[in-house]
Design brief:
Length: about 70
């Protein structure tokens, strides 16, 4: 009777450890997703800034080509 009780206790402890690790992974994945979202927004803003900066340069290059 002792061995089945030990096996059940160890099984429960193993499941508890897996549960704790699953929660930690879930929290880290959510944090990573937030960081990826923020980085994506920063890249989009930088791309828009670059596009706005390129328009005057392109028009000057186009005018210089007509000369």
């Amino acid at each position: 009777m002792l061995w089945p009780m030990i096996a059940i206790a160890l099984g429960f402890a193993g499941l508890a450890v897996l549960g704790v690790l699953a929660v930690r992974v879930f929290v880290e994945v959510r944090r990573l997703a937030r960081q990826v979202g923020a980085t994506s927004e920063r890249i989009q803003r930088a791309s828009e800034d670059l596009e706005r900066a390129a328009v005057p340069l392109a028009s000057r290059m186009h005018e210089a080509g007509r000369d």
